[in-house]
Design brief:
Length: 298
């Protein structure tokens, strides 16, 4: 929605998002979607007709808007017509698209090691940050928003090191969770702490008042990827995919992996069964069992 159309309606929409507790980034995405819809209409969205909503969906298809963006916009409109401007009849005219499920790209253990070795300096900051992403399966934003108090880095501090856990505050979906803290990761983080002496944010940004930005994190990862000569199309999120896949290949129960990743649905986690190649390779084919039975009758 743009201010020139409906400033009061826009303000109410913003207030409704705040009441629901949506994150600032999500609020920005919602406002962008409503702005696009309002521009298409040429008038305030509270007076949109079902036919105009149908025409908007046809227009998105004609412009080749992908299923994720298409569905995100409808989710925003569904919220608007359920909360800010209650009109239940509008929801009946929303047609969500079936999104193709892509198998995530994962790194081998050797490739992860090369990226960690190639982490840019000076110091251990990025190597430690990448190690947290892979060692705990954290998202980039979760890594950059870790606080010193979330991990015990000094002997005098007693928090979760006895239990070998990292606390993730307000992850995706505004959910808190704990993830594993391996002895090797704890040792690396303590070395980093003694070197950098962060206060507040574990990985502070340039001004140390703010956390390291995800943009800086992504840029550093790209540098490490290039130095490590990784040709796959990967990002920091690939470390999280690799964490889950390697755990699955190592025999960890998929429901445990679900908890570690913070997935609300097991279905989301089962995607890793399609890329756990070692697990697939270790399965004995029923044909082999049949041949063995025939070769050793009785």
């Amino acid at each position: 929605m743009t201010d020139q159309y409906v400033p009061k309606l826009r303000q109410r929409f913003v207030e409704d998002m705040q009441i629901k507790g949506l994150q600032p980034k999500t609020q920005t995405m919602y406002l962008r979607a409503m702005r696009d819809f309002t521009r298409f209409l040429g008038h305030a969205p509270d007076s949109a007709t079902p036919e105009e909503l149908r025409a908007f969906q046809l227009d998105m298809k004609e412009w080749g808007v992908g299923a994720p963006t298409f569905n995100n916009r409808l989710t925003v409109l569904s919220f608007f017509y359920a909360t800010t401007c209650p009109r239940p009849e509008m929801k009946r005219h929303m047609r969500y698209q079936r999104a193709a499920k892509k198998i995530p790209v994962v790194l081998s253990a050797e490739e992860v090691s090369r990226i960690l070795e190639a982490a840019p300096g000076p110091g251990l900051r990025y190597r430690a940050a990448f190690s947290v992403a892979y060692g705990g399966g954290l998202r980039a934003s979760e890594v950059t928003h870790l606080k010193v108090g979330d991990i015990v880095l000094e002997a005098r501090l007693r928090h979760d090191s006895d239990r070998m856990l990292i606390r993730v505050d307000q992850g995706k979906g505004r959910k808190d969770r704990h993830v594993m803290l391996s002895p090797s990761l704890l040792g690396l983080l303590r070395d980093y702490y003694r070197e950098a002496r962060p206060a507040g944010w574990l990985f502070p940004g340039r001004n140390r008042v703010d956390p390291l930005s995800t943009k800086q994190f992504n840029r550093a990862f790209a540098v490490a990827r290039d130095f490590a000569e990784i040709k796959k199309k990967v990002s920091p999120h690939t470390l999280r995919h690799s964490f889950a896949t390697h755990l699955l290949e190592g025999g960890t129960d998929i429901r445990v992996i679900q908890v570690l990743l913070g997935h609300a649905k097991l279905e989301t986690t089962t995607i890793y069964t399609k890329v756990a190649t070692k697990t697939i390779q270790d399965v004995t084919s029923p044909l082999d069992l049949l041949v063995r039975r025939e070769a050793n009758p009785g």
